[in-house]
């Protein structure tokens, strides 16, 4: 007896759920329909009840394993809505639906310095901070270099910090002569890169003069680091607040050193 051909309504073995895609990105919807007889089903797509026609940004693909794909690239706000996939043959049809949400395109701004690094000086043995402030969207990655050497990790003495407000800091505990040099901070994101360089000077700490039969005292000079007194370095005792070194006068009882 001739074999009677049997037809069965298609059903979906695989279907995607709701999707959220950023504007400008690629969106792919994959599904797989199965039937137990012939013919294999035809698939079509609708957006908010309207048929989707293939064009430069909407493509429909079928792979050998029976997976059907709707690919949208780039996604725009007009692509948001309810998508319906319809599988049909002469025995009937089946459908599934999903909602595509299109998120606003991420704002991208190249990094810029709100506050740049400043040339800094520190007395040997004291802590020092190299600071700046940077803005950018998305939040940029920060890189530090000393001369041509990258600073890639924190130590107990040298550490790198940043907060959520764009403040960047390189902290050195107990500066040494080896810390002196040019420091560069760079900020990089998808929109660009920016760098800033400043110099750190490390001064030798003044030592208290040894007592001799003829005490020596040094009058104030244009350098605040040359101010000495019997108790050692005392800037406030040698200078009036905010005084201009050019207008400084010799304090009573101070004499010029014979060695100067």
From TrEMBL:
Location in the cell: Cytoplasm, Myofibril, Sarcomere, Z line
MF terms (GO), sorted A to Z: actin binding; cell-cell adhesion mediator activity
GO cellular component: axon; plasma membrane; Z disc
Keywords assigned: Actin-binding, Cytoplasm, Disulfide bond, Immunoglobulin domain, Phosphoprotein, Repeat
Stored PROSITE patterns: IG_LIKE
GO aspect biological process, one term: dendrite self-avoidance
Pfam families found in the cross-reference section: I-set (PF07679)
Keyword Repeat: yes
InterPro entries in the record: Ig-like_dom, Ig-like_dom_sf, Ig-like_fold, Ig_I-set, Ig_sub, Ig_sub2
Listed CDD domains: IgI_Myotilin_C (cd05892)
Major localization class: cytoplasm
Domain Ig-like intervals: 10-101, 111-201
Family, per entry: Belongs to the myotilin/palladin family.
PANTHER family tied to this protein: BASIGIN RELATED (PTHR10075), PALLADIN (PTHR10075:SF30)
Protein name as annotated: PALLD protein
Organism (species): Sakesphorus luctuosus
Gene name as annotated: Palld_1
């Amino acid at each position: 007896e001739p074999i009677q051909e049997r037809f069965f309504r298609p059903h979906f073995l695989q279907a995607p759920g709701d999707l959220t895609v950023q504007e400008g990105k690629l969106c792919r919807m994959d599904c797989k329909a199965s039937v137990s007889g012939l013919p294999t089903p035809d698939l079509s797509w609708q957006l908010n009840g309207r048929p989707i026609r293939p064009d430069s940004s909407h493509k429909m693909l079928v792979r050998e394993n029976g997976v059907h794909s709707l690919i949208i690239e780039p996604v725009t706000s007009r692509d948001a809505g309810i998508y319906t996939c319809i599988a049909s043959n002469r025995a009937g049809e089946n459908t599934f639906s999903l909602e595509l949400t299109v998120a606003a395109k991420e704002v991208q701004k190249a990094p810029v310095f709100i506050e740049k690094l400043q040339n800094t000086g520190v007395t040997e043995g004291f802590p020092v901070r190299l600071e700046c402030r940077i803005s950018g969207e998305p939040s940029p990655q920060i890189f530090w270099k000393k001369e041509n050497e990258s600073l890639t990790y924190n130590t107990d003495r040298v550490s790198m910090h940043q907060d959520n407000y764009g403040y960047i800091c390189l902290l050195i505990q107990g500066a040494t002569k080896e810390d002196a040099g040019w420091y560069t901070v760079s900020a990089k994101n998808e929109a660009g890169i920016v760098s800033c360089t400043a110099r750190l000077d490390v001064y030798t700490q003044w030592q208290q003069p040894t007592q001799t039969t003829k005490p020596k005292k040094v009058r104030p000079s244009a350098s605040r680091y040359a101010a000495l007194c019997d108790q050692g370095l005392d800037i406030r005792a040698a200078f009036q607040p905010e005084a201009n070194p050019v207008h400084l006068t010799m304090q009573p009882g101070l004499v010029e050193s014979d060695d100067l």
